[in-house]
Amino acid sequence: MGKTKVICFANNKGGSGKSTTCSNVGYGLTQFGKRVLLIDGDMQLNLSLSLFDEDQVLAFAQSEKNLYEGIRRQDDLKDYIVYSDYKNLDLIPSSTLMSSIEYELFTKWQREYILKKCLTNILETEIYDYILIDAPPTLGGWVMNILCASDQIIIPVESTPWGLFGLGNMFEFLEQVKQVAPDLTIGGVLITKVDTRKSYFKQTIDMLKDLEGVKVFDTFIRVDSTIEWSQDNHAPIMAYKKSSRSAKEYMELTKEIIRL
Known about the structure:
Elements: E1 5-9, H1 18-30, E2 36-40, H2 46-49, H3 54-62, H4 67-73, E3 82-83, E4 89-92, H5 101-106, H6 114-118, H7 120-125, E5 130-134, H8 141-148, E6 152-158, H9 167-177, E7 185-192, H10 200-209, H11 225-232, H12 237-240, H13 245-258
Parallel strand pairs: 1-5, 1-6, 2-4, 2-5, 6-7
Antiparallel strand pairs: 3-4
Helix pairs in contact: 1-13
């Protein structure tokens, strides 16, 4: 097994499909024989809910074995991993207390690198091919932590009139992060929630193509009610309905990500 690759899914705008993409790419990678660890970095718990039902997720959140507790204690996160029903797909669950993680980080020495340090043992043992991190829709110390722990960032952008709102701030923030994490690269921008009948899609593509040196994935994710049904059933869409259009799109996206 080679070096573990760490990819985060981040955008400072909510509703862009970060959690959905993170969970489905994670599952997609396991279909190629990859072992994957998902990390839920958001207080909304959506990534955790994509694999476990509400009762289990709340139990994780209220226990001492979730990401918030691991970061607060600066522990080895290996001890915070839970195992899903899907082969080779594991999770470090989140907590609603992640809303106060910025305060926990504020007084810590080298606070930008705490997540990276907590992942050291997992990375050194190379038990995973990929670690995928779902970031919250903010720009601050915790997201900087996530970016400093990552090799690449993938930015989901929804194909709506407000989808690109704030993207400039995201790129400005990335420039700041690269001062402390110079090896971080942009894996690409993913267009989500696409309705090809509407002009917003073409407008989104045209505007993204104007971004110099930024890859836009060939695959885009269209609006599909099957995504909502899979979320309601706490299952990756490829496991819930492999024949669906969005399952096929996420599989194609996964292939693109493997080639990065």
